[in-house]
């Protein structure tokens, strides 16, 4: 009997059940028994659509067989196949075939029935793929998975590891993904390769830096056409600073305009990478992929852990499963992690029993043990997100171990308020946020409330794209409709006067919400965050880029040619000036040829001021912002004009004002709705008409003094939304 170890789950993720149907048909017409790799629930949820077109009741038995066999797998793992994660039989059968069903029984030639205990640290390689955005990381990951037989070859394999809907829609990776695969190297040995595909955009660099902690080397991809870009530089130095082995790879050599020699020269000039160590591949066409695998095996060192020591595992990611609770992604450093083992998280001191343990292959694939050097996931009935600490050390309960170095906490660059559309949805939004925050540990959250928007949260993100993606994930994955307020960067205020310092709990107050800024009379000095921005561009755009940066209060630090046409410039820029639309502007003036990346420089004193918005003299705290003195007028005018467009006309005139202290710096008026009170007059004395008009204008004056400005919630949202 054969098991058909298909890549069904991948087919499902792509939104098509056609492959699965064909396997089922195959199973129905032959004597095969299908034991697919996807979870019970997903399988059963698509059951009805799978049954369409299947010939007999046999199809039913296949479906139910799957459900039963999965449960059996949890309970009985036979001695035949202790750690069989490849064929997923859980010890139920000794041998299996590939998805093509072409293997004969007992044929182990492509590595079926893998026992993870076979792979001591020397036979393991943990590596990440890093690159500038769109240089081909996920495409290379697809080819590596195909070549190692982890997934079956198919034209449908496009960015398999980009699992989130937002990633598929935007075509970018936002979440690092892990996949384990087995590779038969040219030296005749079989290696367990744990690959982590990382995001390229600077806003997700925390994902990259966390992933690198579980790796011993990286594959640095550079597009052979575009050459070195800003994030290539940032990623290179990140890997370099962590002492990781770097395998430089030029991708897209199939492109007509590829310039592999020029790009190799760039790598040599910028990073002193020897030209002969640079691999040339085309991930799309599948050229040179085995060279990458060979380089991974031969150049990247194996993990240094020891199986005989007390277990220590580093938690480097987590996510939430609706049915199983919190999943932890771990890198086992020493010893081993077993099913039904009592473990403790050193940082929290809390203990659990492991309920499921496995590897991502690339879908969660249960097994019994994870050994030193291996990377996998575990469920341990953890329900609360507060218990899961990314960067934490797992050890056996009752053992004492040295805690592993964790991660620096991510420093949010941009803050925004998140409120439910309707306050009745507050509990639902809270639960959605908790789950998503578990999945994205770089987001900071704090409860806050606003008179206009009710109870909500102030969230800190690594950038505006990060904020957008988070918002989209809240909507798509949790159905939460939220109001996102305009993003702002944090500022620091230095307070003076012992009494004030005591009241604010310190001399320096970090303000994430402009409405919470201490009274300006108490502030001695304000500082804002600065960054070092790196721009790589063809030199013809030099002039426009210089004026854009200067307009954004930038100061040039450095400039150097990276080849005969391209230049790399660095600027010191205030984060506030680049956070929203700088990159878009840069792309538009350079027709998309420039790339931009930045790194934090810290806070520096700056001439900042607080700008209030008043409606008929009343302060609207939600609209308060902190701006540079030189930009206040421009910003004030823009906000007043936007408010004028969105506030509906009232019976009385509305003055919209932007003020810095007591000085009004911008003003717009919304004219009153005019009722023709003299309409019913037919002739008569002129004084009768004047009297009516005078009474009307007095009424309006009174209304203006006591009348509330009706700002429908939607109006508020429109102005606050970016
Ligand atoms: N011609 C050609 N195109 C390629 C090659 N590799 C990738 N691409 C294309 O480049 C685009 C980006 O590829 P991805 O694999 O998504 O790039 P990425 O680096 O993972 O992107 P992010 O995750 O967003 O940073 C896709 O349209 C791919 O089809 C290649 O070798 N040749």
UniProtKB/TrEMBL annotation:
It is found in: Mitochondrion inner membrane. Pfam families: EFG_C, GTP_EFTU, LepA_C. Keywords: GTP-binding, Hydrolase, Membrane, Mitochondrion, Mitochondrion inner membrane, Nucleotide-binding, Protein biosynthesis. It catalyses: GTP + H2O = GDP + phosphate + H(+). It is a peripheral membrane protein. Residues 122-304 form the Tr-type G domain. Gene3D superfamilies: 3.30.70.240, Elongation factor 4, C-terminal domain (3.30.70.2570), Elongation Factor G (Translational Gtpase), domain 3 (3.30.70.870), P-loop containing nucleotide triphosphate hydrolases (3.40.50.300), Translation factors (2.40.30.10). NCBIfam families: lepA, small_GTP. This is Translation factor GUF1 homolog, mitochondrial. It comes from Orchesella dallaii.
